[in-house]
Write a structure and sequence with these properties.
The protein folds into two domains: 128 residues, Creatine Amidinohydrolase, Chain A, domain 1; 213 residues, Alpha-Beta Complex (Creatine Amidinohydrolase). Helix 7 packs across helix 8 and helix 9 runs antiparallel to helix 10. The longest helix is centred in the middle third of the chain and has 21 residues. Helices cover 35% and strands 23% of the residues. It is α+β, with helices and mostly antiparallel strands. 45% of the residues are buried.
Length: 356
């Protein structure tokens, strides 16, 4: 309930009587319960979870901190919301303006005529950015799965294996180790395709002398992991080694700068400066990192334009890269937990250039 109490404090500060949560991840953050459909209403004194018959039994068993209501043709969501708004004297209602379409927003406004809707998604985003102890422990477990799978992959990567086959191994092995699924579709690219930051795995076969870049993650109890490693299959060229070394130095510089209380762009700048000093700035086009948690991409980020301060408890990626079009690319990614005096690297896989 600490999360809900923190949200209530923010609602009071904004002069809001309640917060309506429709987004699946926001609902899970507020109640701990996962369902593809439903609604959560947070008021000054009450927490409501409304679900339909597909989830009602599980919700009533799992959620003790909320009043759980069954939506049905006889008692649809609009009636539950009307009743709760009336009983709790809701006049100004916060909602997730960044998650609802215009049509959905108008539908909810019609349900609650006379209630003022106020965009308040930033309040929830602020709290979700600050991971508590339970969230951090879950994310450690998720990262441990990716670390273990990467270690296993080193024993099967070989010339002749296709990108698609390696991606399938990643998905399969994460599930075997207890993951709920992938946090995103694995990126596996080799040879010339490794210059594509988000290349799609295909039937290209790994060849001797190639770089292979693998970007993947899994979901454990709703929370995401994320990591990228680039390995060489057979002896790499001196240029490949040099570029790998630059990316590794860039990541180390960004990690050294990563801590709570600094703007996201400062972390990006620290890592980017290394790549630019090496004359490769034009080949690093994306941000140094992004926040993650229940979603694989959250905010704030470690990007060149991120003015917001990274809060204590934020979990961000550290993933610089250099991509030489039509030739090869390198990316190295870890996940960091930010504290006031620095960060904890949740990713334990080795980062020295591995030659298979």
């Amino acid at each position: 309930m600490d999360r809900i109490n923190k949200l209530r404090a923010l609602l009071r500060a904004e002069g809001l009587d309640a917060m309506l949560l429709i987004d699946e991840k926001d609902r899970r953050w507020a109640t701990g319960f996962a369902s593809s459909d439903g609604a959560v209403l947070v008021t000054e004194r009450e927490l409501f979870l409304f679900v339909d018959s597909r989830y009602i039994e599980a919700a009533r068993e799992a959620v003790r901190s909320a009043t759980v209501g069954l939506t049905s043709p006889k008692m649809p969501l609009r009636e539950w919301l009307k009743q709760a708004a009336r009983d709790c004297s809701v006049k100004r209602l916060g909602f997730e303006e960044d998650r609802l379409t215009w049509a959905e927003t108008m539908r909810f406004r019609k349900m609650l005529e006379g209630v003022e809707f106020v965009g308040a998604a930033s309040l929830v985003r602020r709290l979700r950015a600050e991971k508590d102890a339970a969230e951090l422990e879950t994310m450690r477990r998720a990262q441990a799965v990716t670390d273990a799978v990467f270690s296993e992959l080193l024993g099967i990567i070989r010339p002749g294996l296709t990108e698609r086959e390696l991606a399938a191994e990643i998905s399969y092995r994460q599930l075997l180790r207890g993951a709920e699924g992938n946090s995103f579709d694995p990126i596996v690219v080799t040879g010339r395709k490794s210059s594509m930051p988000h290349g799609v795995p295909g039937d290209v076969r790994i060849e001797k002398g190639d770089f292979v870049t693998m970007d993947f993650g899994c979901v454990v109890d709703g929370y995401c992991s994320d990591m990228t490693r680039t390995v060489a299959v057979g002896e790499p060229t001196e240029e490949m080694r040099r570029v790998y070394g630059i990316v590794l130095q860039s990541q180390a510089a960004g990690i050294a700068a990563a801590r709570a209380g600094v703007a996201g762009k400062a972390v990006d700048s620290a890592g980017r400066a290394v790549i630019e000093a090496a004359g490769c700035g034009e080949y690093f086009g994306h941000s140094f990192g992004h926040s993650l948690g229940l979603d694989i991409h959250e905010s704030p980020s470690a990007s060149p334009s991120e003015e917001r301060i990274l809060p204590a408890g934020a979990v961000i990626s550290a993933e610089p890269g250099i991509y030489l079009p039509g030739r090869f690319g390198v990316r190295i990614e870890d996940v960091l937990y930010l504290g006031e005096n620095g960060c904890e690297d949740l990713t334990k896989s080795p980062k020295n250039l591995i030659v298979l």
